Amino acid sequence: MASINEKNLALGDKSKFQLVLVGYDREKAGNDAYVKKVNFPGLKLEGRDKAQELIKTGSTGFIPNVVLLKPDGTMISNDKAEVMKKLNELVEG
Question: How far apart are CA 23 and CA 37, in angstroms?
Fold first, then answer.
């Protein structure tokens, strides 16, 4: 995900998507460290309760759960292979 995000950010104003991390860490230090490591925006642990609907959207029951959403919040896919393929197409094409 990080390399795909870097390619997307390199597109500047023509960026195709925004990655957002919704972490599952139960402790603030672990959550904050992971958000910093992946280098894309993430929900703060204390704000996660406000995103319960988002967290449930496209849930697969597996971690990591990767979901591709349209700007209006409707799900395109929650199949990891399909999502990764689509994101690669967006940054390569």
Answer: 12
Q: What structural domains and CATH numbers belong to the chain?
A: 2-92 (3.40.30.10)
- Coil, helix or strand at residue 47: helix
d(CA 70, CA 48): 20
Q: 29: part of which helix (H) or strand (E)?
A: helix 28-38
Give the total residue count for the chain: 93
Q: Is 41 exposed, middle or buried (0-12, 13-18, 19+ CB in 10 A)?
A: exposed
Give just the sign of the alpha carbon dihedral 43, 19, 76, 13. Answer: positive
SS3 75: strand
**pLDDT exceeding 70 applies to what percent of the chain?**
95
Q: Model pTM greater than 0.85? A: no
Helices 2-10 and 80-92: crossing angle in degrees, nearest 10, is 30
